[in-house]
Amino acid sequence: METLFEDVLEPRCHCLPWFLGSQLAGHLSLRLSQLDVRCETNTKDNVFVNIVASIQYWALADKANDAFYKLTNTKTQIQAYVFYVIRASVPKLNLDDVFEQKTEIAKAVEEELEKIQEAPKANGPQRL
């Protein structure tokens, strides 16, 4: 028997009629979470740098079904996209330019994560 998502329960005491076949599908936190992504890459002038990107994310209550069933490992998937953006943009810059353009790199990471979030699921997963 496959358990299907029905509702997001607010934090309080709930009665789950297990004898009628109801069961808890799992837990999904709607709290704000932070993921620190450490990425080592080199710059245009061949200097290796360690970049730490702090990503704050949370599941939306109205999209809890998607967050629970369509994402297998949220942290790993976010980390992969952040690596992709950082490793695509930093090697094009000199060391001094990396520090000057950290805002542009952060915007590029944010835009990439937003594209993933808004992408239609019918096309299947995006590949890096």
From TrEMBL:
SUPFAM superfamilies (alphabetical): Band 7/SPFH domain
Domain Band per the UniProt entry, residue ranges: 8-115
Native species: Hibiscus sabdariffa (roselle)
Highest taxon in the source lineage: Eukaryota
Lineage: Eukaryota, Viridiplantae, Streptophyta, Embryophyta, Tracheophyta
Positions of transmembrane segments: none
InterPro entries associated with the record: Band7/mec-2_domain, Band_7, Band_7/SPFH_dom_sf
Protein name: Band 7 domain-containing protein
Signal peptide: none
